[in-house]
Amino acid sequence: MIRLKNLLKEVKKDMRVGLDYLQSIQSDEPFNAKQPLFHLVLKDNLDNVMKNGLKPSIPKSAIHGGKLKGETFEGVWLTSLNDPASIVDIHMLPRKYEYGGVVLEIDGSKLDPKLFSIGIEIPYGLMSKVNAGKKISRNDYFSQSEEIVYLGNIPPKAITLMD
Description:
Strand content: 15-25%
Helix content: 25-40%
Strand order of the largest sheet: 1-5-8
Shape: globular
Low-confidence stretches: 4-17
Structural class: alpha+beta
Distance between the termini: 51 Å
Mean pLDDT: 84
Number of strands: 8
């Protein structure tokens, strides 16, 4: 039992390292939160989300192209896409989100601009910058990856159901 507790501590420690690394390669340039941001939720969760907002969570890992993908830290994944099928395909969500999901528009101007972060799947062009010792702009990351991670709670006042 003690070994399991130690293992869980190590796993939690590793989760912090992933976010720490991302923040170390992310520039201080503020994220432009005035652009359209979207999030896909299951219809079954809609009432709860509209009442309580979106809470950061760790997404389930997915296997894509023979590689395990998925962040190891809590966040709310936002995208520039507003079509459920596209969101499911690009972000490797289960198909139930395509048929049983609804798209929410997030008003980023109502969120803390310091809490936007890049994710772990860094496009090749941006990774080349990192390898050259340069930092990644959150705006460049968003435009190339079509996603940004919000590290805090998103309140109901910042959420609108898309038609």
